[in-house]
Amino acid sequence: NNYFKIAVLPGDGIGPEIINESIKILDVIAEAFQCKFHFDYGLIGAEAIFKTGNPLPEETLKICKESDAVLFGAIGDPVFDNNPEAKVRPEQGLLKLRKELGLFANIRPLKTYASLIDKSPLKREIIEGADIQIFRELVSGIYFGEKFTDPEGEYAYDVCKYSREDIIPIAHMAFQEAQKRKKKLTLIDKANVLDTSRLWRKTCQEIALEYPDVQLDYMFVDNAAMQLILNPKHFDVILTENMFGDIISDEASVIGGSIGLLPSASVGEKNALFEPIHGSYPQAKGKGIANPVASILSVAMMLDHLNLQAAADKLRQSVEHAIENKYVTIDLNTKQYYSTSEVGSFIADHI
Amino acid sequence: NNYFKIAVLPGDGIGPEIINESIKILDVIAEAFQCKFHFDYGLIGAEAIFKTGNPLPEETLKICKESDAVLFGAIGDPVFDNNPEAKVRPEQGLLKLRKELGLFANIRPLKTYASLIDKSPLKREIIEGADIQIFRELVSGIYFGEKFTDPEGEYAYDVCKYSREDIIPIAHMAFQEAQKRKKKLTLIDKANVLDTSRLWRKTCQEIALEYPDVQLDYMFVDNAAMQLILNPKHFDVILTENMFGDIISDEASVIGGSIGLLPSASVGEKNALFEPIHGSYPQAKGKGIANPVASILSVAMMLDHLNLQAAADKLRQSVEHAIENKYVTIDLNTKQYYSTSEVGSFIADHI
Ligand SMILES: CC(C)[C@H](C(=O)O)[C@@H](O)C(=O)O
Ligand SMILES: CC(C)[C@H](C(=O)O)[C@@H](O)C(=O)O
Predict the structure, then answer these.
(1) Catalytic residue at B246?
(2) How far apart are CA B172 and CA B185, in angstroms?
(3) Global pTM value
(4) Where are the domains of chain B?
(5) B91 CB within 6 A, ligand 2
């Protein structure tokens, strides 16, 4: 198979700019590796609310369901953040999309680049050689449990719910990934307080019996938030629930020196979505300064997923070539820097 | 008033060792500042479970309720952590105590010590001058909402609930503290996803009207977990809910170089409890290597609370004197170090 249907959802803020670079890359890949990508564009987020009133229009969902992969930009707009009473919010579009496509596992690889190591707020000796893969459960927990605000506005609640079935598939994925790596899996939870965390611990304990070569250990989320900074090399594969994963993986992004470098894949039984881990960065919108690398490396994860391994490898090499040659955006080098589209073209040219 | 009833709960792991040093300090303070402390000891945590079956015996609760202040050591034991099916857990003792005493605000001051700045995993220029005060809501949210595990063990849930009344008192405390400092308050939440977070945002927006001199801003918890490491000097006073506060404040402890230095106060209408932010550190139990400073600085916060300001100031000076003279435990200097009790005595002698 060398024909792929890609749903493209640029979204809000800097989303469209970085997605442009990813498309540029895919056009070059198509030529170099003799394959064809068909792009279907869809609206999502604040952009979709402004145009249709709906953060995830039916048409967008349809395009995504029929795709071989979804390429996602970014979501979120300060207009909604500062209004606690807005009924419709951009983020609902992304959350609904994750749920409808059953994207239960969000995978975030973290590593350091030799030439960028001094950009990190952490000391070189702390982070050099750190290499972590985070598995965050993405379609359950407090994000998707019942929510309620009483009409008088006196109280509100959010329910965090997990069943064994929500945990088992992602746990297997994480164990299998650990087998391919240093064979160490850390489950992050708050089992000294939460019933759901104890269910995670118990379920993972059982699954661990099927992976006797993997060492499973447990860490409370408060301690993990500390250990990730004190000693990131302690970690190999991390497995955690939705809310803790949101916090821990953004925190862990500081290890690599820039959140502008970090890709993610969200995968389910049938569909998969690829997006940078950074947000919509509204202050930078339209300025041509956004770092396209996180989105471009998300394309590399997409190529892995489509079994275009040679293309994925070549793309990663080209990104490293750009970074090692300091052909980067302003977030990585304030003295000598290039625009979003210059960096995208430089990477494309190297492929 | 110069007579104070202090409830002393050493708890688990290194708790008893560090509490011994705090008592040593209080004995010296009593003499130097002409006051009297009466100590009532109580069982709590794993220690209490082993001896009475109950992590918070009635007698302990009674001592605490009748006290002017509670001095708390540490809680937690690996025997329970590794058993997801244990019905009775040490942490329940502390949680119940917080609830019964109505200790709604957990206050954690964070600062850096000039002589220890190079101990931090973060670079000097990132942390030098950072000074943050965290207010964590302590008796509501997902810690205390309804919890359920179905008897078959197929699913579980935890409810995060907040009412305006839970938020208002701690919000006022945080605004008032900000007024005394740099007049900047950051509310950390996940208002783009959670109803409870939107209630926090709305309630704080209203209260902000009473503090026009304080600048209130909002930050999503995932972004905050990143910004705390990228730019800790951005923060002055932080206000947040229970679970986020647990994670964020442990994470923020890396700024100062050692979690062994950080005290906390948990205050309510009638009672107050003082404890180090570190855990029971079971691996170090009985070895005389634990750092007593966090517990001793918790005593300083207790002296503030009892309006013994001169004593509190003198105690803080004595701690700084010990640190500047490198009279510290092994966690702060692996080349030349002193035992838990040597450090306690050195500080006591300086008072
Ligand atoms: C935009 C927001 C709803 C989302 C989340 O919290 O999952 C984002 O922070 C992420 O991590 O992808
Ligand atoms: C021991 C545990 C229940 C407790 C908490 O989560 O509140 C601790 O981590 C703390 O922060 O005081």
Answers:
(1) yes
(2) 11
(3) 0.95
(4) 1-103+269-351, 121-256
(5) yes
